[in-house]
Amino acid sequence: MFYTVGEAAKRLGVAPSTLRYYDKEGLLPFVERTNGGIRMFKQSDFEGLRLIECLKKTGMPIKDIKRFMDLCSVGDESISERLEMIDRQRERVLEQIEQLKENLQILDYKHWYYETAKAAGTCAVHDSLSAQDVPSDLRAARENLEGGVQERAKGS
After folding, report:
1. What residues form DSSP beta bridges with 32?
2. CA 95, CA 97: separation in Å to the nearest integer?
3. Coil, strand or helix: which one is 27?
4. Residue 151 confidence (pLDDT) above 80
5. Which of 9, 30, 29 is nearest to 19 (CA)?
6. Rounded distance, CA 88 to CA 101, Å?
7. How far apart are CA 97 and CA 79, in angstroms?
8. Residue-wise over 46-69: b if at least 16 C-beta within 10 A, else e?
9. Is the pLDDT of residue 155 over 70?
10. Residue 35 near residue 44, CB atoms below 8 Å
11. CA 152/CA 6 separation, integer angstroms
12. 41-95 pLDDT per residue, tens
């Protein structure tokens, strides 16, 4: 079974223009075309398409995704290089996850902060609270907001 650009885009949850762009950038060497030049996607193309979307969502630049896809076309002799690229991107994603966790912790702290202020009717309620009054799981976020940037600058 073949899928048009529109059908493939719908299955992937992207705009048809995204698939056309990928094709224009050389990321889709596997895509067949009709005699009239219409792109036709096979079921087996979706693994590559989903991988491209994954790499893009993790922040890999298009030029690097193209390099990766070109290496896929080379075959088994490029396995080591592909593995290195995947491992590098995986490390970037792990770093992003850690940063997101830190951001979430700050948001959790601020949620508690404003929830407490709302109940008291004023943010001034926090002026009299000690570090021990802050829930233990939110203390690191408070410290990060109050001085984490300065401390990091000193440590750099």
Report:
1. 40
2. 5
3. coil
4. no
5. 9
6. 20
7. 26
8. eebbeebbebbeeebeeeebbbbb
9. no
10. no
11. 49
12. 999 999 999 999 999 999 999 999 999 999 999 999 999 999 999 999 999 999 9
| Tokens 């493939």, located at residue | 8
Q: Are strands 2-3 and 32-33 parallel, antiparallel or unpaired?
A: unpaired
Residue type, 92: R
Identify the bridge partners of residue 33 per DSSP, sorted by sequence position. 39
> In CATH, which of 3.40.50.1460, 1.20.1250.20, 1.10.1660.10, 1.10.510.10 is domain 2-74?
1.10.1660.10
Stretch(es) of the chain classified as CATH 1.10.1660.10: 2-74
Tell me the H-state helices in the chain: 5-12, 16-24, 45-57, 62-74, 79-120, 139-143, 149-155
Q: Are 74 and 53 in contact (CB under 8 A)?
A: no
Residue with tokens 């990928």: 22
SS3 state of residue 85: helix
